[in-house]
């Protein structure tokens, strides 16, 4: 390709922008947030599984509760995945992106798990 044609079509050549730097503190905070979120979700899943099992053993219909139990986390995961692939967030460093998504994902299951735990005392 003729260099003048390239310059006319695309402008002068510019080097690519450097990738954002990874910061270890951000990665540790992201891991901490996702650990808390995962533990909260595991606690809630076990409590809801026990409730579904007891309901089924008592002969109660549990289809609607089971559907909600499956659809709510799937919907939340879909929203987080869509947000993770948004153009502004994709330009962030991976650790910063994980920290942002962890900060959005953490509060709801953690608060719900704490409320359930306090209710069982």
Describe the structure in your own words:
There is one protein chain. Helix content is 78%, strand content 0%. With 121 residues, it is an all-alpha fold.
- Could you state the order of secondary-structure elements as H and E? HHHHHH
Q: What is the alpha-carbon Rg in Å?
A: 23 Å
In terms of per-residue confidence, which ranges show pLDDT below 50 for 5 or more consecutive residues? Answer: none
Q: What is the tally of helical segments?
A: 6
Shape assignment:
elongated
Mean pLDDT: 89
Class of secondary structure makeup: mainly alpha
Give the N-to-C terminal Cα separation.
75 Å
Label this structure with key terms.
121 residues; mainly alpha; 0% strand
How would you summarize what this structure contains?
The protein is mainly alpha-helical and 121 residues long. Helix content is 78%, strand content 0%. The mean pLDDT is 89.
Topology, please?
Blueprint: H1 3-10, H2 24-57, H3 63-84, H4 87-90, H5 94-105, H6 107-120
């Amino acid at each position: 390709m003729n260099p003048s044609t390239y310059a006319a079509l695309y402008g002068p050549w510019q080097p690519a922008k450097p990738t954002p730097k990874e910061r270890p503190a951000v990665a540790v905070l992201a891991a901490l947030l996702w650990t808390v979120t995962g533990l909260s979700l595991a606690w809630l899943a076990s409590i809801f599984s026990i409730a579904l099992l007891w309901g089924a053993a008592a002969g109660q219909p549990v289809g609607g509760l089971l559907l909600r139990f499956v659809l709510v986390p799937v919907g939340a995961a879909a929203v987080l995945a869509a947000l993770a692939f948004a153009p502004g967030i994709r330009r962030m460093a991976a650790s910063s992106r994980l920290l942002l998504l962890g900060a959005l994902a953490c509060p709801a299951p953690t608060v719900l798990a704490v409320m359930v735990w306090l209710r069982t005392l």
